[in-house]
Amino acid sequence: MKLADRKKLSVHLDMSGLKQIVSSAYPLSTKRQIETSPISPNTSRLFSEKKLKVFQPLHSSKSRNINTIQNIISNFKSKVTREKENKSISIMSQFPLSVDQFIKLYNVTQTEIQELSELKQVFYYKETLIQDDGTNGQYLCNAQDHIRYQYEITSLIGQGSFGQVFQVFDHKTKRTLALKIIRNQEKLKKQAQIEANLLRIIREKDSLSQSNIVRIEDQFVFRGHHCIVLEKLEKNFFELLKQQKFRGFDYSSLRQFALQILVALNYLQKLNIIHCDLKPENVMIQDMKQKIIKLVDFGSGCIDGNQMYTYIQSRYYRAPEVLFGLKYGMEIDMWSFGCLIAEMHSGQPIFPGENEVEQFHLIMELIGEPTIEFALKCPRKKHFFDENGHPKKTIKHYRNPRSVKLHDLLKTTDGDFVDFLYKCFTWDASSRMKPQQALGHPWLQGVVLNKSSNFPDYTFIKNSKTQSNLLLREFEKKVPKENIFLKLEQTRTLIANNFMEYKPSMIQEIYSRSELKIEQ
Q1: In the CATH hierarchy, which fold is given to the domain comprising 99-231?
Q2: d(CA 147, CA 161)
Q3: 202, 191 in Cβ contact below 8 A?
Q4: Half-sphere exposure of residue 84: CA atoms within 13 angstroms, side-chain side
């Protein structure tokens, strides 16, 4: 065969052209194997058009490369974020840390180092910007912020003129608690110290947690704000009424709640403590299923005989002696209790006055006029009475005395219930029913509390022997029988030391603490 004929049968491979075709048809990101070996002379083309169409990319090579770079950057950022989270979780798992270890691990500020100097361990930390207080000295914070390197803020429960209450998680005890942060104002801080002291005294005397009063867990000053840590409760009576569209409680629940509140008031009376602000918002549910409640918020509380304020109690629940500017005592809590129970029954306040004058006339409409002698001794009599001691007959607010019957107002036929409330609503505080008397009233006879609800005998202050026997029985349950007689004398000594009769020196103890400069 001639050479010219042989050339016609040869294959001429243009490698540069092949690479160009392959690169456009198969981007590098596809990672497909490309065949570049010579093909049989019998093949008409390097690749059939059909094959090329199958592997045709959806995007141009330029667009595909840009997307690939964006994916790489996105994956890198995700990896860095995961590494940071894992590092954070790893460090969190190391808590608690000593202060020295913590300072080495974290880039803390000089202010934080000064705060840490007062602590021994760090249980929780989230880097936050230390900022100035908000309006009227309010503490500014966000979710997951730390308080005193131990408590993690999870949510806001409520707020008021005193400050804010947050739900927090205690990383030391692994419990969910309530944290009350007081505004950075001297007057409020002083009252907060008194509240904390009252709660501490109550807790010390209530070692078995049977007083139906909220328990204080801790107190401290953090960044200029007085903080009180309390047990976390579910919701208050007002929220419960709102949930029920203000229809009131069923009769059985009403009596159980009334009994538990009276136990708390009786306990406070034995300690000479006045709550001063009993209302639906300050009675909270601890366990709705078991119908267990607790009395909260002693921000206006005081020791009887050491009253600090004259303007106390929310208006709907304000006792006559406070209304008229008279000297008040523990009896004001029983008036508020009567208003509270009536509202829990009907769903509406029994004396919803728009102002103090209307409040007076609403009370007078139900229980009649006060005596002239009572009226004339009131320091604020000019607002309510004329010069002869008779109620002023203002066109807008005047109501006929005793023109409303309690049976009709509460829509009840229970005579015992009506009598119970009338004994709470008296002009003269000295004739008002006391908590101990209320506990024995016929309306509450036969009330059975659930097993989780305790109805103890709080006569240990006046009768230490009864309390001693109670504690001895508790002691015998916990100590093995063979050790009872060995430790009996020690137990009697302990009881004698800790549960003596009430001493007035406790009043001075509380107020001496409150007068001290609040320091951390």
Answers
A1: Transferase(Phosphotransferase); domain 1 (1.10.510)
A2: 21
A3: no
A4: 6
Q: What is residue 75's predicted lDDT score, i.e. its pLDDT?
A: 72
- pLDDT tens figures, 340-364: 999 999 999 999 999 999 999 999 9
- CB-based contacts of 68: which residues, under 8 Å, 6+ apart? 29
Task: List the structure tokens of 330.
Answer: 């523990």
Given the residues 277, 287, 386, 419, the one annotated as active site: 277
Residue 27 pLDDT: 53
For the chain, which residues score pLDDT lower than 50?
A: 1-3, 7-11, 29-56, 58-59, 451-472, 474-520
Q: What is the rounded distance in angstroms from the CA atom of residue 279 to the CA atom of residue 336? A: 7
The answer to the question of whether 180 is labelled as a binding residue is: yes
Q: Tokens 């020295």 map to which residue?
A: 100
Q: Per-domain residue ranges for the chain? A: 20-33+48-91, 99-231, 237-450, 465-515
**Nearest residue to 278 (alpha-carbon basis) of 254, 255, 262:** 262
CATH fold match for the domains 99-231 and 237-450: yes
What pLDDT score was predicted for residue 495?
38
Compute the distance between CA of residue 281 and CA of residue 482 in angstroms, rounded to an integer: 49
User: How far is CA 421 from its chain centroid?
Assistant: 31
In whole angstroms, how far apart are CA 300 and each of 190, 194, 238, 240? 11, 9, 19, 23
Say how far apart CA 153 and CA 176 lie, in whole Å.
10
Confirm whether 206 is a catalytic residue: no
- Contacts of 27-35 with CB under 8 Å at 24 or more apart are 27/57, 27/61, 27/64, 27/65, 29/64, 29/65, 29/68, 30/55, 30/57
> What class does CATH assign to 237-450?
mainly alpha
The single-letter DSSP state of residue 385 is B
For the entire predicted model, the pTM comes to: 0.71
